Amino acid sequence: MDTITHGLITRVFAKAVVPEPRGRDLVVLTTVCSVLPDVDIFFGAGDPLASLQNHRGITHSLLGAVLLGFPIAALAYHRIPHALFTRWRGAEGRVVVGDPHGREDVALGFWAGYLASVLGIGSHIVFDLVTSYGTMILQPFSDRRFSLDLWFIIDPYVWLILGVPWLLRRAFGRRAWRAGWEYRVGAMLLVGYVGLAVWVQIMALRRLDAWAKAEGLSVVTRGAIPVAFSPLHRKGIVMTPDRVYDIPVRVLRADFGPIAVHPSPFRTDDPFIVRAWATPEGKRYRWFARFPLAMRRQEEGRQRVILYDLRFEGRLEDLDAVGRAIARALLRRWPALTGRKRQALEVVFDARGRVEHIRFVH
């Protein structure tokens, strides 16, 4: 999920729980902490595969949340960020009446700040888990990526829900009922949207399991991946030892969309694909890919192998009517998006069969 949406979601939940104006500092701290885990995008700068290995790693782990909370709470307790901000604005600090140490600008107790920090980081972890990218919540003890596959990584329906508190305030005013009531409505809608996604996910997986059983397939792994702009649809993926099936699942209809069948990405009949997976970069990509695929193209004497993950491959057949309309509008504006691989590894062999270059395609 994008960083800005993380902050907005956490702000809605924080303002729904914490009263204002007394808890304003807690809301701000929790919101700021909810965007901090994405600092890991700067880890390993210059390494094309660093984003695969580092993103959603230690800063997105349970232990990371517990440990990061301490320095953040210490900074908040001593009001260092606030002091820097007020100095930058040229504002004068205030003294909180009753502070036993006579310290300026102290509004949060240490443990209150610590709890707010951990909850903010924890919110980021939870709402990354609901996407299909994968989050290493057990680092540094395990590099396994966990995914709930509930929401697409960029979901415009979430944005609409996040706008509800603002619309309610504009329509009814600040004091229409109780302080924070509009944010409670927004929080309940977000929880309801998660519940809807859980139901869709369960139904999609049940239908995939029933289909695989009816076809007599030996399933290695399967998944139901959220797709853009289509909350009631899933990209069903079933992997067998020799085939990968891409199955559009529409939970409100009895039938599937057109099924695409791909050969196994680890077939041994193509030496270039075998060699591409055997490169150090190919091994790193194999660790990341949940539903790997491989394709080879011959171009002017060179062999171009692309290793990619079916999670990030969209088809119009995966989408509902609204999703297809939006997708077609985007393709008319950017036709190059068609056929473009994302989160893929490109390995090019020269005419002599030697590795010429390896490139990660975002």
Morphology: globular
The major beta sheet can be summarized as: 4 strands, antiparallel
Beta-strand fraction estimate: 5-15%
Could you give the order of strands across the largest sheet?
1-2-3-4
Structural class: alpha+beta
Radius of gyration: 24 Å
Total beta-strand segments: 8
Q: Low-confidence stretches at least 5 residues in length (pLDDT < 50)?
A: 91-106
Number of helices: 12
What is the helix/strand order?
Answer: HHHHHHHHHEEEEHHEEHEE
Mean pLDDT: 88
Could you estimate the helical fraction of the residues in percent?
40-55%
Straight-line N-to-C gap? 16 Å
Summary, kept brief:
This protein has 362 residues and is α+β, with helices and mostly antiparallel strands. 44% of the residues lie in helices and 15% in strands.
Keywords:
single chain, globular, four-stranded antiparallel β-sheet, 8 strands, alpha+beta, 44% helix
Explained architecture:
There is one protein chain. By secondary structure, this protein is of the alpha+beta class. Among the domains are: 3-148, no CATH class; 265-362, no CATH class. The protein is built from 12 helices and 8 strands. The chain has helices at 3-17, 24-35, 50-54, 62-77, 80-89, 110-129, 156-162, 164-172, 181-215, 271-278, 280-288, 321-333; strands at residues 221-226, 233-239, 243-250, 260-263, 292-299, 302-309, 344-349, 355-361. The chain has a 4-stranded antiparallel β-sheet, with helices on one face. The chain has a 4-stranded antiparallel β-sheet with strand order 5-6-7-8, with helices on one face. Strand 7 and strand 8 form a beta hairpin. The longest helix is centred in the middle third of the chain and has 35 residues, at 181-215. The chain is globular. It starts with a helix and ends with a strand.
